[in-house]
């Protein structure tokens, strides 16, 4: 599963490069046709990977989930892989992918809030990705900001009363929430932002973050 996810990330982040290449080959229909063919090939590979993972989740992993943690994880994964599809699949496939992602995230959120404390990495990771889904796919920006801010504030309040060192994954995910909140507040200017996240500080180029 990790290998599949890494491959998906590699393919996904290569996709935005393709349209940019058009400027280099302006006026050359042959090169543009090659680029279009390459993009279609990439998108087909992404779709095949996503659907394979979604089939595995629906047919095996989710029906056999025996704990709240596994249920939350698998529904989060279903939301994530459905969201990946919404980024590029055409109209007749887009809406079902959006609905699938939304429903899966809602179930995962309910289970995570029931099973885990606010600073648990799985609950925070879900908040990161669900808020990105609201922002980028549903264009519900106020809802995205509200979800991300509540998750960050709740986790920070929990960490503030801890006597031991917090989980590194929790801190990283809180940073991602903070990065997105700062980016969304600045309307995505593309400038570098200094992000202060309580006990940590992180500077990163402005780009919406998900996991």
From TrEMBL:
The keyword Oxidoreductase applies. Residues 1-20 form the signal peptide. Pfam families: 14-3-3. Residues 1-198 form the 14-3-3 domain. Belongs to the 14-3-3 family. The keyword Signal applies. This is Tyrosine 3-monooxygenase tryptophan 5-monooxygenase. One of its GO terms (molecular function) is monooxygenase activity. Keywords: Monooxygenase, Oxidoreductase, Signal. It comes from the Eukaryota. It comes from Fusarium mundagurra.
